[in-house]
Structures are given as C-alpha cells and as structure tokens.
Amino acid sequence: MNNDSSRMAVNVDVTNPGQFFACCGLLELAHRLWPGAEGWFEKDQFHVVIKEKQQNLFCQLLDRLRTATFESDKNRGEDKIHPIFINQWNLYLDWWLDTSGKSNSFKLWAGQQSFESIILNLQAALKEINLLNAENILNVSMPLSGRFGFDPRAAWNAIDVGYSPNEQQMKVNTFPIVEILAAVGIQGFRPAQDKNDYYYSTWNRPLPTLTARIAASGRLPIGNTQTFRFQIVSRGNYKGLDYAIPIHQEVRHE
Fold first, then answer.
1. Domain count of the fold of the chain
2. Residue 1 within any structural domain of the chain
3. pLDDT tens-place string over residues 59-113
4. Residue 93 domain flag
5. pLDDT tens across 21-57, in order?
C-alpha cells in the first residue's frame, strides 16, 4: 500500500448479513468510482483503500447515491419486481429474479411494494443522514415504512405485537445505508446455498472486487477466513435475513 492511497473504514458486525452485504456493496461502488479499489475485514471493521489521493471517500459515495436515478427495466419480471438500472453507477440490479424472470427466495418484501418504491424511500432517507461519524454509518437508523429486509435489527414479530406494522403502514426503525448498500452488494456477492441455509465468508487481506466476490462465497483459500451460516425467516407478510452463525474458521499460512 503506497503513500498515495486513500482509505475508509466502517464498523461492522459480521454476524449481521445485512452489514456484511453492505460492506460488499461499499466495495462494489468504490470500485466503480475508483477502479482498482480493494477491501477487507479486520477485527470489527471493513476497510476500503483506493489507489489515488482523495478526501472523504464515504461522503463522495453517499452524495452520488443521494442523487442517483433508478430506471426500471419493464422487459423483465412482473410488475413491482422489474430489474433496476442505476445510471450514475452503470449498475444493473436483478438479484431478486431467477433466470425465468420470476421472483426468488431473496425477494423479501410483500407484494404491495415494489423494488423501485423501496429504494426511492431509502434514498430519500439518505438525504437526512449527517456524516458526523462515518465509521459508525452502518448503525444509523430512522423510522421508515419500507425496507428490503437485509438487516435483522429492523425485524418485528407480528405474533408479539398482535398485528402487522407493515399492513398498518407503521414506520419501523430501519437502517437505510445498510439496506441500500446491501442491495448493491448482493448483486455480485451472492451467498452459497445448501437447501434453506446460506453461507458467506469474510476475508482479511486487501482484495479487488472480482477476487473479493470469490472470497465472499468461501471458495478462495487465502489468509484467515471466517464462514457464517444464515437463513431467511418469515415476518408476517414479509421475509427477512436472520442473524448468522459462525460455522468454522480456517487459518492458512503461505
């Protein structure tokens, strides 16, 4: 790493799938803005480094997300699940569709909402966030009425409260930066799957985006890797990602 490099770091709970995929999304967007960006997990943080001298990397990313436009691809998928193209990032999102254009298990939101309406709601929330502490940005929350369901902290249980907050259009404490970055990250950083279980792995060496995608799937035997297992759980009419459980740790010396 040379002296001309610039970096950013965010605090992360790697047992939270939403935060893990948000870190992946952070690396994806950094790579598209500054080609050659590298990222890695170290202790309780995710680090991103770029190869040019820049200031306030996360502020630059957030400003671009705040002004991004989302174009619906009406040629694929049914109403409310059309893929989305983000013009400012040259990024196509369709992770909630299978090859036939039908929704898959990662389509977590209920039928009355669309991907486009949710992401616009999250984008509006980004405009209210003040980056006083960029390191803690994945822990910023606010009451919102829509989310993708990546972050289990926003979960509610309809049995416990006796009714569905979503059906009543009630706002639930949501982590908008986690949700929107995870929606970007899971496009290229797909978890491995075994029946109802899903797996992802952290990595502790600086890796570019394409290599990091392989590491995240657990297929790259390099350095210290920690693998986690999680499931998709039902929450009334919605689904969401549950907290992940570490299943093994491998230490390799090269």
1. 1
2. no
3. 899 999 999 999 999 888 888 889 999 988 999 999 999 888 888 899 998 767 8
4. yes
5. 999 999 999 999 999 999 999 999 999 999 888 888 8
Q: Does 71 map to a domain?
A: yes
Other beta carbons less than 10 A from residue 144's beta carbon: 19
Question: Rounded distance, CA 143 to CA 145, Å?
Answer: 7
Which residue range(s) make up the domain with 169? 6-251
The answer to the question of residue 165 being in a domain is: yes
